[in-house]
Amino acid sequence: xxxxxxxxxxxxxxxxxxxxxxxxxxxxxxxxxxxxxxxxxxxxxxxxxxxxxxxxxxxxxxxxxxxxxxxxxxxxxxxxxxxxxxxxxxxxxxxxxxxxxxxxxxxxxxxxxxxxxxxxxxxxxxxxxxxxxxxxxxxxxxxxxxxxxxxxxxxxxxxxxxxxxxxxxxxxxxxxxxxxxxxxxxxxxxxxxxxxxxxxxxxxxxxxxxxxxxxxxxxxxxxxxxxxxxxxxxxxxxxxxxxxxxxxxxxxxxxxxxxxxxxxxxxxxxxxxxxxxxxxxxxxxxxxxxxxxxxxxxxxxxxxxxxxxxxxxxxxxxxxxxxxxxxxxxxxxxxxxxxxxxxxxxxxxxxxxxxxxxxxxxxxxxxxxxxxxxxxxxxxxxxxxxxxxxxxxxxxxxxxxxxxxxxxxxxxxxxxxxxxxxxxxxxxxxxxxxxxxxxxxxxxxxxxxxx
Length: 451
Fold this sequence. Notes:
Elements: H1 4-19, E1 20-22, H2 32-42, H3 44-49, E2 58-65, E3 74-75, E4 87-88, E5 93-100, E6 105-111, H4 122-127, E7 136-140, E8 146-147, H5 153-160, H6 165-184, E9 187-197, E10 202-204, E11 217-225, E12 230-236, E13 249-250, H7 253-263, E14 270-275, E15 281-283, H8 291-311, E16 315-316, E17 320-326, E18 340-342, H9 344-351, E19 357-363, E20 366-370, E21 374-375, H10 380-385, E22 393-397, E23 406-407, H11 421-425, H12 433-448
Parallel strand pairs: 4-13, 6-7, 12-14, 20-22, 21-23
Antiparallel strand pairs: 1-18, 2-5, 2-9, 3-8, 5-6, 9-11, 9-16, 10-15, 11-12, 17-19, 19-20
């Protein structure tokens, strides 16, 4: 007969089995999810190869304020403990740019939020414009000082305050209004692209610049309408974390200040920023935190974008492609040691489930790919080097409406002598994801080089 000590041991052992399990380290080539995802990417090949070139692309744009009428939580830092905003430093927006070549319609939408809400109702947003879900390309500025309250689950509450359906509905309705206005303001437009070197304002926060790399480029799409209006869509890799957790006023951080500065010039009527490969990347400034840091990086990047925009060329384009590609991943979980994880059912209980997909938007020879994560800037160079025809221009964005944590360079996954926030705390889908996403995006590039 079991004594009490034996029973206690059995209960503890059983509890450990229920809560924890070994980390799955099956190589990509031995994983079904890897091949399923590659097959899903390959399914767009026929759509792209056989697509008809339409009429000259028309472009329209609009923005709507995301400042609520009452106080709501801020999103961005767990250290804020769900605090409401107390004032407004600058307006945060949802911005929409609509493209139409009479065959395909597509919408680029960037939100001045920490991330695009994973529970956003895409079909509701597009219903009144008769767009398909494939036609919605989403990203966010990743400001850590905007409204929260739209993230479900315990983790969502920690980083974004108490969840409220009213806040999610508010974001949804503002997005619809921006899209409708952009759609009905479309004009035939010339479109150009530029890549501007801006290494002074970004650094590797994961392992430092001495052993790590960073993505130093501003990537910019220029739009000139027939009526003489101009717009800029751009990305950059530095995290929008100039304001720390003590910030209590709403702000778009440096992307908000920078886009406002650009819109005050004669040359640019509308500017929209979408977070680039911000994983592992931090703003590089002399100022440590706050308004001085925002101004330093904003003024520095403004000079580069303004001068680059002025000399960039643009031409009429007819190619327009917009696709959403479902992907699969290794089971989600929190890693508690190098080889032990919390079971996925507990992860889902705490965080919830998120859609998993890649979004692509091609305008002329400008190919945009939006990822469901903080995508690391360390992964960009090898991906760009895979472009073989010297025609495609690539922009990779983070935060496409799904959220799966951080995707980082695989060689750091098991390192214990680095800041492990990205590789342990926020790495939710096991090893080899740097290579996994790199291969998926390279395949997207390969398919687009045919057309």
